[in-house]
């Protein structure tokens, strides 16, 4: 009986867990990881040098592992607020399926493995960028900005915008203006994307004590900020064509997609303040996901066609 009671105490205190492989996969935030891998791959394809296929595969896997490691460390640190948010309370750590210490060790080991692998197999510039991305996401964003300022997403978005730069650097060993344009597209996209989510999840963020824009500055200010960002988001999407590292056909596609982003942001701006359903915000949030994927898919197709044509 004493052993049974001790086990219950240890499980309560996070010393033991009954984690499955699926739980550890969940720690990696697979949906976020897939977007990281995709944008990093696009960065590799658009880079002027042609990568060795095997090294490119290893580099992409290292970037994926690094992104997953950052997700695991984020879940370790945010377990307290994840437990009170409806959107996140089912994650492995707040549910008790993975002990906090396990999540921390898992994230640290994967981080070291990913950075070392990318450095040894590609180059140390790409590895340094990956290490910086993990550090920025976990320490600067998760531990500091997220709980202290409504600008958390604006500044913290840099972490999610770096993967195409890492992919580009893995191939070329350099950071160029073109790779920074890819960074800019994601960096500008991040605030309106998350602020749209925050509009219809404001209660969740309030319960967790996270100072998202709607909770601090109000819904009206948030809606104006979303629209203010929508125009540069649309403009940044066209930049690759204007700068000559994507075709005019891509530019036309990007212009149409950007026009859609501005239109949905306009609907959010003009939204009835009494609308508790927040349908325009939900629509913009969904479209923003489609937008970013479509922009990078168009860049990928354009780059592959250019290589085949060249």
TrEMBL record:
Pfam families in the record, alphabetically?
UbiA
Q: Which residues form a coiled coil?
A: none
- Annotated keywords: Cell membrane, Heme biosynthesis, Membrane, Transferase, Transmembrane, Transmembrane helix
Q: Please give the Gene Ontology molecular function terms for this protein.
A: protoheme IX farnesyltransferase activity
> Under which pathway is this protein filed?
Porphyrin-containing compound metabolism; heme O biosynthesis; heme O from protoheme: step 1/1
Q: Which PROSITE patterns match?
A: UBIA
Record's superkingdom? Bacteria
Q: Which CDD domains match?
A: PT_UbiA_Cox10
Main localization (coarse): membrane
**Catalytic activity annotation:** heme b + (2E,6E)-farnesyl diphosphate + H2O = Fe(II)-heme o + diphosphate
Which InterPro entries does the entry mention? Protohaem_IX_farnesylTrfase, UbiA_prenyltransferase, UbiA_prenylTrfase_CS, UbiA_sf
**Where is this protein found?**
Cell membrane
Q: How does it sit in the membrane?
A: Multi-pass membrane protein
Q: What family does this chain come from, according to its entry?
A: Belongs to the UbiA prenyltransferase family. Protoheme IX farnesyltransferase subfamily.
Misc. comment: Carbon 2 of the heme B porphyrin ring is defined according to the Fischer nomenclature.
Described purpose of this protein according to its UniProt entry = Converts heme B (protoheme IX) to heme O by substitution of the vinyl group on carbon 2 of heme B porphyrin ring with a hydroxyethyl farnesyl side group.
Protein's UniProt name = Protoheme IX farnesyltransferase
